[in-house]
Every structure is written in C-alpha cells, then in structure tokens.
Amino acid sequence: MTNKLQWIQDELQNLKQGGLYNNIRTLGSPQGAWLIVDGRRALNFCSNNYLGLANHPRVTAAAQQAIDRYGVGPAAVRSIAGTMELHVELERRLAQFKGVEAAITFQSGFTANLATVPAVVGKDDAVFSDELNHASIIDGCRLSGARIIRYAHCDPQDLERVLKENRSQFPRAIVITDGVFSMDGDVAPLDQIYAVSQNYEAILMVDDAHGEGVLGHGGRGIVDHFSLHGKVDIEIGTLSKAFGVVGGVVAGSPVIVEWLRQRGRPFLFSSAMTVPDVAACLAAVDLLEESTSLVDKLWDNARYFKAEMKRLGFDTGVSTTPITPVMLGEAPLAQQFSRELFEYGVFAMALGFPTVPRGKARIRVMISAAHERADLDQGLEAFARVGRKLGVIR
Ligand SMILES: *Cc1c(COP(=O)(O)O)cnc(C)c1O
Predict the structure, then answer these.
(1) Domains of the chain, with CATH numbers?
(2) What is this structure's pTM?
(3) How far, in Å, from the CA of 359 to the mean position of ligand 1?
(4) Which terminus of the chain, N or C, has fewer Cβ atoms within 10 Å?
C-alpha cells in the first residue's frame, strides 16, 4: 500500500529544512503592545493592529452592548434571512468615513476580493494586475476567468504598455492594485495609475487593506491620501487591520454596491459579519471620526522607529508606511534572528519564500499606536544586540 499523503510529509520536511516552515505561536493575552506568547511576555511587533483598536475599551464595550441587544450571529446569509440594521448602519458609516456614496461589508477582506473581481469581469475580459498584488486579489482574478495580465510592480509606464498592447481585445478591463504593499510597505502611485486607467477606459480597483486607518486624513485611506475622491471605482478594505476587528468592505458608487448585493458570491452564499464584529467596527469608526490622535501617534512611532533602525545600520527597505521590513537576505538567517529576538522578549516574525521572493527574507516589524516610546526603545535595544551577535550590523 502506498501512503497517498506521503508527499505532504515530504513537502513539510522540505519546508523545515529550508527554514520556510511556519511555526505558529500561541497567544494567551489580548492584542496590544505586549502579549503573552507561548506563555512568555513579549513585545508585539507582529500585528496589524495599527491603532490599538483590537482591545480598545470603547470598541470592546460596544461589542458587549450589541450582544445584549442583538445576540451574536446573523443566523443566515443576508439575502435570504434579511439584513440586521447594525450591518446597514456600519455600511452607511463606512461610506461616509471614506467619502463615497455606498459601501457593502463582507466576512473579510479576502472574501471582499473574491466577491468583487468575478462580479465585475468575466471570461471575455481582462484584469491588469500589479505583479505583487495580494493573494486574495490573485484568487479573485482567477475565479473571474478573465485574462490576467500583470504589470511591473508600482510601474504606471508598464501598466500603460500592457494596456496599449492588449486593451482593445477585451470588452471590459479592470486595473487592480494593492494600496499599500504589505511586505515592503510601499504605496502604489495611485494618481498615475488612475490617469493611465482613465485613458484606456479601464475600471480602477484598489485594495486599501493596509492603508485604511493609516493613510490619508485621520486614516481615511489611499484615495484620500492622493485626493482621488470620486475617481477610484472600487475600494476594497478590511476591518481586521487598523479597525482591529474582522470583516471586509467594498466602497464606491451605489451601482457597484447594488451589483455586489445581487452577484457577490460570498455575500449570497456565506453569512455576514457577526453582531459583535459589526458593533466593534462602528465604535472604531466613531473613534477615527472623533480624532486623528491615534493615527498621528502611529506615524510618530513609525518615523521614530525607522530612523533609529537606520541609525543602527539596518536596511529597512523601501517602506514609506509604518510597515518596517528589516532586510536580512536568506530565510534561515531571518528565522534565527526572529528566535533570538524572542529570547530578548521581542515577538517579530521572519518572512521568507513564498511570502516574499527568495533571497529577500526579512523580519517585518509592525509599528502601532499601541506602542509607547519606551516599548520601541526596548525593541530597538533587542534589534541592536541580535544584529551585532549575528553580524548583520557592526
Ligand atoms: C490583509 C489583506 C487582505 C485580507 O484581509 P482580511 O480581512 O484579513 O481577510 C486583503 N488584501 C490585502 C491587500 C491585505 O493586506
């Protein structure tokens, strides 16, 4: 008898040998600047909790109150069992926050992408996609059956080249880019991408997962950052990063939102966000609309940390956002670096292939408004020690 699953054992073994096996740590505390990681207190440099909202007292209180009033679950898909007023309210508030006419929520950013691309383009059409777009965009594009034409990362000239070559063969075309690229922390030149898309009559879609709550006035996102209000057709967002909860959102014109209510498969065939999720997100929108202080603190922290890391001699790549990659090269070095940091009480994950290209392994430090200056200093001290020990800096 052959073991039909033996190949998986072999592949897992290969991952371990290549330093590419993902060891998932267990957390015994809420999100915040410090965590209990595998039973030990550690400084949190891993999470996308940019504004510290995942455990903010107003956000958690809102979730608790909503449970008392509405229970926990939506009980079925919205298109069949009806939609709760809470979801409608969140969609209205998110649209207002983003300065668009309409919004629709999904279970996650991932499903928002899976819903949207196939609803807008089909097998006769084309997607023009940044080569480093997020996995959920790639999967959405594949599900659509449209021809996928990639352009060089953040390169409007190359986008223009592929549009010129191919656009006329397809009735419909969509240009899709991440807003902030999560591995490098660089920002798509959305103003130029908009101009090119416009010339070729292509729908423009941006996935602002790492830009919401981070870029733009008070965290209103990449469209606000570039003052492109009313020009970007489809904005995808997640409620799991800066918003600190879970869920996805598509924001744009009423016609897009109405269409997704009719044709977005994860909307039609999967239940909605739960009651506490929605209520928590509503509280997060309140906080963001009341004050820019959390967003300001996030950026102050990010600027400080990055400048100090550079002063220590680390290569922090091309990031222009709070995402701070620490470039190390080979995956085993990055993994060892991460383990040594943990010994100093710092939780920062190594990222290797296939999350990033081979030879570009790194530690990615996620800065948050939850960090105080003393926390960052403690983290810098640990990076300095491990960096010297492993010969990364002098
Ligand atoms: C994180 C991320 C997603 C997925 O968001 P979830 O809400 O966690 O599913 C989608 N797109 C991009 C660009 C992301 O960074």
Answers:
(1) 21-50+292-389 (3.90.1150.10), 57-290 (3.40.640.10)
(2) 0.96
(3) 24
(4) N
Report whether pLDDT(353) > 90: no
Q: Is the CB of 211 under 6 A from ligand 1?
A: no
182 annotated active-site: yes
Q: For residue 21, what pLDDT is reported? A: 84
DSSP single-letter state for residue 180: B
Categorize the per-residue pLDDT at 23 as very low, low, confident or very high, splitting at 50, 70 and 90: confident
Rounded alpha-carbon distances, angstroms, from residue 122 to 58, 238, 258 = 43, 24, 18
Provide, for the chain, the percentages of residues in helix, strand and coil under a 3-state DSSP scheme, each rounded to the nearest 5.
45, 15, 40
Hey, which of 132, 238, 241, 356 would you mutate to test ligand 1's pocket, going by the most ligand atoms within 8 Å of its Cβ?
238
Nearest to 316 by CA among 347, 376, 362: 362
Distance CA 345, CA 370 (A): 17
In the three-class reduction of DSSP (H, G, I as helix; E, B as strand; rest coil), residue 241 is classed as coil
Which is nearest to 310 in space by CA: 383, 229, 375?
A: 383
* Distance (Å) from CA 209 to ligand 1 centroid: 5
For residues 110-129, average pLDDT: 98
Q: Which residue's CA is the closest to the ligand 1 atom numbered 14?
A: 209
Which atom of ligand 1 lies closest to the CA of 240? 7
Q: Is residue 209 lining ligand 1, measured as CB closer than 6 Å?
A: yes
Mutate to test the pocket of ligand 1, among 50, 105, 110 (most ligand atoms within 8 A of CB): 110
| Residue 246 Cα: closest atom of ligand 1 | 7
DSSP character at residue 282: H
Clarify whether 371 is annotated catalytic: no
Tokens of 228: 């492109």
Whether residue 238 has its Cβ less than 6 Å from ligand 1: yes
* 241 a catalytic residue: yes
Question: Which residue carries 């656009």 as its tokens?
Answer: 167
Q: How many of the other CB atoms lie within 10 Å of CB of 273?
A: 26
**Burial of residue 145, with CB atoms counted within 10 A of its CB: 0-12 exposed, 13-18 middle, 19 or more buried:** middle
Question: What pLDDT, in 10s, does the model give residues 278-323?
Answer: 999 999 999 999 999 999 999 999 999 999 999 999 999 999 999 9
Asked if residues 319 and 186 have their Cβ atoms less than 8 Å apart, the reply is: yes
